[in-house]
Design a protein that fits this description.
The longest helix is centred in the middle third of the chain and has 19 residues. The protein is of the alpha+beta class and 276 residues long.
C-alpha cells in the first residue's frame, strides 16, 4: 500500500512532506498536471497563505501527508501556478488509493468546517491532542468525523438488470439505485425500501459485494446485488425520471467502472456472460 492512515497530533508539516490543499469543496491542483498531492516546499513558495487548520492524514509512500484547510472564499493568485478543481474530476485519472487519500482530506476538511463552532452552545471548538475529535471547552461536547452510510444496488432479473435515470444526471446517463440508510434500518432493509420507493420493484436475496468511500461530502457506499421478486416499474417522475430493464448488449450510458455503480454493473455483465 502507498498510504498508511495515522493520527499523531505532534507531527507538524515541513518541507519534504506531502500537502493536499482544500478550499471549500475543491482541491488545490497544479496547473501543469492537475495533481492535488503537492510537496510542502513547492506549495509554501507558490502559495504563501497560512491555512485555517492543518490536519495530519497519515503517510503516503512513507512520507507524512497533511490536509491544509483554507477559507472557501480564498482567491488563488493567477501567478501561483495553482488552480482549484473538484476531486470528482480526478476519478479514473489517478490511482484509486490516491483518489481515496484526496477524499480523506476533503472529508476531514468538511468535518472541520462544519464543527468549528459547537452546535450545543455556540462556543469555538478545538482539536484534541489524543484523538481526532473537535471538543468544545465550554460545554464538553465532542464532534467526531461523521460518515453517512448509503446503500447502492443493482437488481437482476433473468438476463437483464434494472437501471434508472436520476433527474440530476446528465441526459442519457443511467445507473443503479442508491439512497441513505435511515435510523433503525439495516443496510439490507434500506436497499429494499429504496428500490421499492424509487422504481416500484420488490426485491429479495440481497448479496453484499463491496464498499466505496464517496467524499461528496462524506458518504460510505455499501454495494449489493439484489434479485427481482415482483412488481412493475413505476417511477416518481421527480427524483427518478425513467427506469428500465436492460440486457448486457443494449446498456445505456453508465458510470465508469472505477465507481461502485460501475463495479456493480460489471458484476451483472460477468454473471450474464458466465451463464451464457
Amino acid at each position: 500500500m502507498s498510504f498508511e492512515a495515522d493520527f499523531d497530533s505532534e507531527v507538524t508539516a515541513a518541507d519534504g512532506h506531502w500537502i493536499i490543499g482544500v478550499v471549500g469543496s475543491r482541491l488545490l491542483m497544479s496547473e501543469v498536471d492537475q495533481s492535488f498531492l503537492l510537496p510542502h516546499d513547492y506549495l509554501r513558495k507558490a502559495f504563501p497563505v497560512a491555512p485555517q487548520e492543518c490536519l495530519y492524514l497519515g503517510r503516503w509512500q512513507n512520507v507524512p501527508c497533511f490536509a491544509f484547510i483554507y477559507s472557501p472564499e480564498l482567491e488563488i493568485p493567477p501567478t501561483s501556478g495553482l488552480v482549484s478543481g473538484g476531486l470528482r474530476s480526478r476519478l479514473g485519472m489517478v490511482a484509486d488509493e490516491l483518489f481515496s487519500l484526496g477524499g480523506r482530506a476533503q472529508q476531514l476538511a468538511h468535518w472541520y468546517e462544519f464543527h468549528r463552532y459547537c452546535g450545543r452552545c455556540g462556543g469555538a471548538t478545538q482539536l484534541e491532542l489524543h484523538e481526532r475529535v473537535l471538543a468544545c471547552p465550554h460545554c464538553g461536547a465532542l464532534y467526531y468525523p461523521r460518515i453517512a452510510p448509503c446503500v447502492i444496488g443493482i437488481v437482476l432479473r433473468e438476463q437483464t438488470c434494472l437501471l434508472a435515470h436520476n433527474a440530476n444526471f446528465r441526459e442519457g446517463l443511467y445507473s443503479v439505485i442508491a439512497g441513505f440508510i435511515e435510523p433503525g434500518e439495516t443496510a439490507e432493509q434500506a436497499l429494499v425500501r429504496e428500490i421499492r420507493e424509487e422504481t416500484g420493484i420488490k426485491v429479495e436475496r440481497l448479496e453484499y459485494i463491496c464498499s466505496q468511500p464517496w467524499p461528496f461530502p462524506s458518504q460510505l457506499m455499501l454495494g449489493f446485488v439484489a434479485h427481482y421478486k415482483s412488481g412493475e416499474i413505476q417511477v416518481d417522475g421527480v427524483e427518478i425520471t425513467d427506469a428500465n430493464w436492460f440486457p448486457p448488449n443494449a446498456l445505456p450510458q453508465v458510470p465508469p467502472p472505477r465507481t461502485i455503480s460501475g463495479k456493480l454493473i460489471d458484476v451483472f455483465l460477468q454473471r450474464v456472460g458466465a451463464q451464457g
